[in-house]
Amino acid sequence: SLSQPEREGMFHRGPGLNLTSGQYTAPFAGYYTFSTTLHIARREPRRKRQGCRGSRLRVLICVQSCCQHNSHLESISQLESSGDLFTISVTGTLYLQAGQYASVFVDNTAGSPLTVQSGSDFSAVLLGV
Q1: Are 38 and 87 in contact (CB under 8 A)?
Q2: Is 2 within the bounds of a domain?
Q3: Are the C-beta atoms of 61 and 104 separated by less than 8 Å?
Q4: HEC secondary structure over 8-26
Q5: What are the φ and ψ backbone dihedral angles of 47, each rounded to 5 degrees?
């Protein structure tokens, strides 16, 4: 199943993706390749920013909302104090039992309000059982 069909060129196939919850539920036990690309905008006015050097953004794909070792994929990006728009991607393979779900999480340590922009995507494809 792939992302929500918001515009031409995008498609959603299969019963596994719940567009309301943002969760992909595995119809069969097996290895799935997951991918997400998020376009994230910082909403806080530039003049109000602290410019903290340790600010980072983690994007995770987690199984059963459990973002612990061996049950998730993640990517970490440093947030530059001058930027307003960031693109961050996560791709990898996870094993899911039938009925388990995977979903995307954003861990924002920057303290600035962030918005996920349209054009972001989330996909899951069964590789094999």
Answers
A1: yes
A2: no
A3: yes
A4: CCCCCCCCCEECCCCEEEC
A5: -70, -20
In a domain, 100, yes or no: yes
Q: What is the pLDDT along the chain (129 residues), one digit of tens a residue?
A: 344 445 545 555 667 877 778 889 999 999 999 999 999 888 765 555 455 555 788 899 999 988 887 789 988 887 766 668 888 999 999 999 999 999 999 888 777 788 888 888 888 999 988
Q: Angle at the Cα of 109 (from 104 to 110), degrees rounded to 5? A: 115
**pTM, to two decimals:** 0.78
3-state secondary structure of 9: coil
Integer-rounded Cα Rg, in Å, for the chain is 16
**Range of the structural domain that residue 59 is part of:** 17-44+52-128
Confirm whether 4 is domain-assigned.
no
Do the beta carbons of residue 77 and residue 24 sit within 8 Å?
no
Task: Establish if 67 belongs to a structural domain.
Answer: yes
Count of domains for the chain = 1
Contact call for residues 117 and 106 (beta carbons, < 8 A): no
> For position 101, which CATH number holds?
2.60.120.40
